[in-house]
Design goal:
This protein is of the alpha/beta class. It has helices at residues 23-34, 46-58, 73-87, 111-139, 159-178, 205-209, 221-231, and strands at residues 14-18, 38-43, 63-67, 92-95, 142-147, 184-191, 243-246. Strand 2, helix 2 (46-58) and strand 3 form a beta-alpha-beta unit. Helix 4 (111-139) runs parallel beside helix 5. The chain binds nicotinamide-adenine-dinucleotide. The site of nicotinamide-adenine-dinucleotide has 28 residues, from helix 1.
Length: 251
């Protein structure tokens, strides 16, 4: 086995997962716990967040649920402070908190709707990286992954969502180069269609019937979590500033 730079020996590292109460965030939080990480779940869904935390404890790890609205910088900072107090370290950040917002033609969207989607999907990611990265720099190692979306390439009926994901793509590209020399890597994942609570109630029967990829099926949240776990691990020694497609298709 070559001596890979930044392949720090696996330790009991600590993670923060925004949006970890359910869906992709929950799957990532559990996958991280399976690898021996302690996890703080930052979410606005208290019952489900506590449930995820319980599942993590059942895996033998420490877990905290912190009620956190990611749009509020001070709440994100409080969550990071709570994790530092409990775990004495923060090495891993997964940002899965997000909303789809109103699906409607652009002329039916409002500035209020736009601001709300941007506040969660973009500002929330920004706040989380700002609060967590200083601790990773202090520790000389850090891994961050945010869930973006192929909608960043353009989605006429989801303009606020598409813009938020495009901006997050740019954030990942920018931060991916910012701290890599210090051992802090920042990446993203673009899932395809995952039948989570975010999309199922909103999808038309046509959407539900068509997984929209050559594989011919939707992905499970765990399939996205598997890739996230790799990017967030010591096994990721040379990938930063990238957005991985987990879409069951090329592109
Ligand atoms: N499901 C898909 O097909 C799909 C595809 C591409 C991208 N994504 C992205 O993946 C991420 C996770 O989505 P999901 O499908 O698991 O949806 P989900 O609705 O199941 O989970 C989203 C989580 O974010 C939390 N959240 C929402 N607003 C918040 C806020 N202000 N503060 C803190 N937490 C908040 C919710 O409570 C929830 O737990 C989102 O960013 C989404 O855009 C999902």
């Amino acid at each position: 086995m070559p001596n890979l730079r930044f392949a720090a020996p696996k330790e009991r590292r600590a993670a923060i997962v925004t949006g970890g109460a359910r869906g992709l965030g929950r799957a990532i939080a559990i996958r991280l716990a399976e690898e021996g990480r302690d996890v703080l779940i930052a979410d606005v869904l208290e019952d489900q967040g506590r449930q995820t935390a319980k599942e993590i404890v059942a895996l033998g790890q420490r877990a905290i649920f912190a009620f956190t609205d990611v749009t509020v910088e001070s709440e994100v900072q409080d969550a990071v402070d709570t994790a530092m107090t409990a775990f004495k370290r923060i090495d891993i950040l997964a940002c899965a908190a997000g909303v789809l917002g109103l699906e409607a033609p652009f002329h039916e969207q409002s500035a209020q709707q736009f601001n709300r989607v941007l506040a969660i999907n973009l500002n929330g990611v920004y706040h989380a990286h700002q609060a967590a990265i200083p601790h990773m720099r202090s520790g000389g190692w850090g891994r961050c992954v945010t869930i973006t979306s192929g909608a960043r390439n353009g989605a006429p009926n989801q303009v606020p969502y598409a813009v938020s994901k495009g901006a997050v793509f740019s954030l990942i590209k920018s931060l991916g180069n910012a701290y890599s020399k210090e051992g802090v890597f920042v990446n993203g994942i673009e899932p395809g269609r995952v039948l989570t609570d975010m999309v199922v109630p909103r999808f038309s029967p046509e959407h539900i019937a068509d997984p929209g990829n050559p594989l011919g099926r939707y992905s499970d949240p765990e399939e996205v979590a598997e890739v996230a776990e790799l990017l967030l691990s010591e096994r990721n020694t040379y990938t930063t500033g990238s957005v991985w497609s987990v879409k069951g298709a090329t592109g």
